[in-house]
Amino acid sequence: MADDTGRFGVGAVHLGVPNRRQFFQLGAGAAAGWSLAGSAFAQTERPTSPPDKPRGQVIAALSQEPTVFHPLMPGIEVDQGIWWQVFSPLWYIDPDGNFVPDLAREVPTLENGGLSADGLTWKIKLRSDVKWHDGTPFTAEDVKFSIELINNPGFRARSRVGHSLVKDITVVAPDEIHWRMEAPYSPYMSILASFTFIVPKHILEKVSDPNASPFHNAPVGTGPFRWGERVPGDHIQLNAHTGYHGKGPYVERVVFKYIPDLTVLYTQFRTGQVDYTGLAGILPNFVQEAKTLKGRKIFVSSTSSVEHIAPNLDFGPFTDRAVREALYLGINKQAIIDALYYGLPTQTESFVPQQAWSFQQGLPQHKYDPAKANALLDAAGWVRGSSGIREKGGVKLEFTNSTTAGSAVREQCQQLLIQDWRAIGAAMRVNNMPAAVIWGDFWQQSKFNSVIVGVNFMLGSDPDVTPRFGSGAIPAKGGRGYNTYQYQSAEADRLLSQGAKQFDLAQRKATYGELQKLIRNDLAILPLFQSFIAEGIKEGLQGFRPNINMSINSWNMREWYWA
């Protein structure tokens, strides 16, 4: 494993970075406290020294096309691949769960005066050597503007969770900003690290409509790469920002190439047309072969994403918990894992990754039991018709299931689900769509019946799932968040509120343990497994570091270079 201090400068990883115990005592959220599963790091070679100036390029393949370039607006994971290169947060989370300063000079703690003992007052000291890509100096005014933009009711913010509690923002100096939290909110440190990129006041304050401007198609940031060009349907090119304030970048450009067919994507990696397999990684059926390729390195690592079936809880049959339980009992999970994923993933019952400090052990374990599923539906009054499909009160137990068109493994999974559920009297039809369509309003406004999707529910490294399961986070009902399941539970809301105000780690673990039990009992989602990702890079490309605390492993492309 590469030496962290060699990447960021001696001591930079640890300077001002609270460990998890200190962090909760100080009242400022949670460091991850968990490490990468598996042996991905063992496959890395010890890096040579990076070049003195940017050299070469990296072609990164993506199976979906990024379309949202404003980093504070609703987007999907591939959009984050662009955001992490163009923009910067105040701090980020490294693979070991440490908070690492970026635009901030240090991570605020009680010890350094950045946090008050009650967690309500935050004082952030900023770097004074940062410039926007257009040469304008970065200042505390940009931080103030970014938080206020998120809270602007006329702006279509990705989420206001945490940000809405920020009050009395005061710019003390160009390199220092203070604010007060309306209430203690422990996950806010992770939100600032993982989801809050700072945008330029000097450009966006002049825009009449914050939801539409030239900036949205040619963003200006403080990140290691600046906007180059976009050819819709083909690629995005980012060029090195030689005035970047951190280490790197060490390559002249990054080209994100869209290859929607994952088999074609792997073929292009195998033949050397792409240097990195990107967010989707390598299909499970190619992993063993990929490991034998000369001049290639393969990393297999756990991710925070949970592959699951997302039911729309406001859709007819799915409002009945008995139906959800029967469908869950009717899934032959292990057969799906073995047949389609070559046994690589692990079954799970929780939305929390099994490596997390907050993971709840001992949740009820799924059992494939179609006989019990049939009995449950019989008892709930769902009667089989002449076609074998059940019906209750004039409502048939039939529904569509959607996922990204061209995702071969998920499409095969759908075929297995059709068979599994037909055996218990449920009829499922496939309704797949291109990524840009399905993950737009169809998903965000809950226009689906059910979806196969992988979601990282964590707020960076924090288990607060208010944006996913809070009653006020349902976009289809005017809420701000990602609760596209339309899950509503007074008890879940109570636990979410309680956990967000706690700073003692043991107390938070207990609270989020109860929440995991509740979500599992309510079957708000039908979890299949905790995802893994197999990614490939060309031999000689240094600096790649899988990070379970991030949604994407291209988070640190600024550190990548050719040996």
Topology summary:
Layout: H1 4-8, H2 20-26, E1 57-62, H3 77-86, E2 91-93, E3 99-101, E4 121-125, H4 140-150, E5 166-173, E6 176-181, H5 188-194, H6 201-204, E7 225-231, E8 235-240, E9 253-258, H7 262-270, H8 284-290, E10 296-311, H9 321-329, H10 333-341, E11 346-347, H11 370-379, E12 383-384, E13 390-392, E14 395-396, E15 398-402, H12 408-422, E16 427-430, H13 435-444, E17 450-456, H14 466-469, H15 490-501, H16 505-522, E18 526-538, E19 541-542, E20 561-562
Parallel strand pairs: 1-9, 15-16, 15-17
Antiparallel strand pairs: 2-3, 4-6, 5-6, 7-8, 8-9, 10-17, 10-18, 11-18, 12-13, 13-14, 19-20
Helix pairs in contact: 9-11, 15-16
GO cellular component, one term: ATP-binding cassette (ABC) transporter complex
Main location: periplasm
Family: Belongs to the bacterial solute-binding protein 5 family.
Descriptive overview:
Keywords: Signal. One of its GO terms (cellular component) is outer membrane-bounded periplasmic space. It comes from Bradyrhizobium huanghuaihaiense. Residues 99-471 form the Solute-binding protein family domain. It contains 16 helices and 20 strands. Helix 15 (490-501) runs antiparallel to helix 16. It has three domains: 50-86 and 223-295 and 539-562, D-Maltodextrin-Binding Protein, domain 2 (3-Layer(aba) Sandwich); 88-204, Dipeptide-binding Protein, domain 1, CATH 3.90.76; 304-532, Dipeptide-binding Protein, domain 3, CATH 3.10.105.10. It is an alpha+beta fold and 563 residues long. The chain is globular and about 70 Å long. Helices cover 26% and strands 19% of the residues. The strands form six sheets. The chain has a six-stranded mixed sheet with strand order 11-18-10-17-15-16, with helices on one face. A four-stranded mixed sheet has the order 1-9-8-7, covered by helices on one side. A three-stranded antiparallel sheet has the order 4-6-5, with helices on one face. The longest helix is centred in the last third of the chain and has 18 residues, at 505-522.
